[in-house]
Structure formats: C-alpha cells, structure tokens
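FW: tagging you since you asked about this chain on Friday. Here's the raw sequence from the shared folder, copied in full. Didn't touch anything.
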Amino acid sequence: MKQEEAWKDTEKDQHKALKSISPYRIIIPALLGLAGVFYMLWRNFDPEEFKRIQWTGHVYFWIGMGILTVLIRDLSYAFRLRALTNKELSWWKCIEVVIIWEFSSAVSPSALGGSAVAFFILSQEKLSVARTVTIVTYTIVLDALFMLCTLPILFFIFGFDILRPGAQSFGDLGQWGYLALGFYIFMIVYSIIFAYGIFWGPQQMKRLLGWATNNRLLRRFHQGAIKLGEDLVTASKGLKEQGWRIHLQAVVGTLLAWIFRFLLISCLVIAFTPELPLTLRFQSELYARLQTMFFVVMFSPTPGGAGIIELAFNGFLTDYVHSNTHATVISTIWRLLSYYLYLAAGALVVPVWIRAVFKGKREQ
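HL: got it, structure written out here
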C-alpha cells in the first residue's frame, strides 16, 4: 500500500515537473518581458537620440564580447555539473541540462527559480536519488554563498554607491536599497538554515523542521518540511563522500558562472557608452552595481524577473548610462541574450529531451 502511494506521489511530481517546463509556458514571461520593454520605449525612447548612436566596430566588438560571456557562463555551469556528477554525464548532456535548467528558471518566478525542476531533470539522467538531491541542494548553497560572501566585500570596497547611484548613507537608499538590504537579511537566515542542515546537524534540522510545522497554523507545510529535512540528511551524507577536488571544481564553476553573468551587462554598457573609462576600479564599481541590481530582482514574483528587471535597469545605472534611449537599447539586448535566448533554446531542446525520456521509459 505504501509503495503504491509512493508511486502515485512520484507520478504526480513528474507530471508537475513536466508541466512546469512545457514550452507553452514561455507565453506569459515573454509577454511580461515585452510589456516591460514597451513601457521603457514609451517612457524613455527618443528617436533623435537613437539616430545619433554610431554602430561602429567598437559597438559590435563589445556585443560580441557579451555573447562570449554567455557561452563561458553556460560552460562554467556545465563544468560544475559534470564535476558534481563525477563525470557520469557527458559535456553535451551537461550543457543540455543547463539549458533546460535555465529555461525552467526563465518560466518560473525568480523567487523560486528552476531548482525544483532540476530534481526531476537529473533524476531522468540515470542518477540515483541521493546523487540528485546532493547535486541540487549543493548548487543552491553554492549560489547563495556567492551572493552572501561577495556583496559585503563589494560594499566594503565601494560603500553605499553599489546600492543606489549617489548614495552616501542608509538614509539615501530609497526603495531599491532597502529592498536589497531586506532580501540580503532574509537570504542570510535562509542560508544559515541550509548550511547548518547540510554541513553540521542534518538530523537535528530534520527534527526541528518537523516540530516547527507540526501545529495548526503550519500544518499544510508539514509534509514538505519533513521532505526537506530528509533531503538535507541525504545531501549531507553525499557531500561528505565527495573529495576535495570535486568541491574545488564546483566552487570554481560557480564563481566563473556568476561573474560572467554580470560581465555580460558590463560589455553592453561599454559598447554604447565608449566614453566610460576601462580602468579596473571603474569597471569593478559597475560590476558591483550590477550584482546588487540582480540580487534585488532575484526575488521578483514574475517569471524570470520579466517586466521587473527591465524597469529596475534605469534606476540602478543612471550614473553610468546617461541617455534613457541608450539604457533602453542596452537593457533590450541584455534581455535578449540572458533571457529570451533561453526561452527560445528551451522551446527547442525541452520537447526533444521529453521525447527521449519517454522513449527510454517505454523501452524499459
């Protein structure tokens, strides 16, 4: 009886996962993103200013460099995944999984991301449940640690300016700055719980989650909390079995992937504002601002931050991109390369991957 119920639960989870990565789900995020772009065009676009843009070799070179950052970012994610699977997945398979993972993030609210779908994706690649849980949980921790560790360093170096143009104190932050601060505090609490559950006390965390949700107010989250506790125990055991080289490769892959994610925008800003200095100090300040902006948008309720991130772009970069028309052009190209590209790639790759999965199941 229990096996039958477990089988039904698994089937239900698979159905939800397949539904969540359906190519048809690109419609809503695409419309939201286009709405954000059209709003920016309506508010900020100046045809005369656009005519003055000189599409020189400088512009095309830095757009090409931006495309290169996208390739390096995806290869870095694939490198991390290949390391964590002990090379059980080929390079091409890792790239395929990364594309589907990015696609699921693009069609899911940014606050949720694509990690939930990742469990299902990896489980279909003949990896054990324990290995799948370990990989997904570990990547969540690594991504969170990158943000939590780098933002304080950037703040220490550049000060309040990374939170808002011209900010000198907490009183100058405005709504975006306070949002960033609030989200950072929330992420610290969230990461401490995860880190403790994985590295130090998985059994204690499992019991704590079960106890905390075993009441009338949180009863509906009880089963999910128990499942999370079991996943933490599984991930903790799996990580202890990994050698230091795998951990090092996972950390390097994470650093490269996130750094090149933000360097894409830097390349586009340089392309359309050639008067900006290319000094390490100046470009590092720009990088710090971009990372803070992305951190705020990570908690967007819309799929992939669609609509929200386009609007946030102008507010965060007014002191780097002085023309609203230039800002609109830069943000549009940026979203084409970092968002719509994965919607299109996912729409092509996901159906082929799903057919391959079901074909394998039929053969079994």
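FW: The chain is about 75% helix and 0% strand.
HL: agreed, and Residues 1-11 have pLDDT under 50 and may be disordered.
FW: great, closing this out.
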